[in-house]
Amino acid sequence: PVLSNMLIAWSAFLEKKWIAKATCFTTVSQVLSQRISEVHKHKIPGYVIENGYDKIRERKTPSNHSEIHFAYTGNVYKVQDFEQNLVKIAEVAKNYPSVKTKVSFVGGAFSNQRKKKMQKLCGNINLEFVDYMKKKDLDVFNNQVDVFLMAAYGSIQGYQSSKIYYYISMQKPVFLFPSDNDVMDEILTDSGIKINDLNRIYQAKAKSEEFKVSIASEKYLHKYSREAGTEKLAQIIQKITSAETNKTTAANNIMK
Question: How many CB atoms lie within 10 A of CB 169?
Answer without folding.
Answer: 17
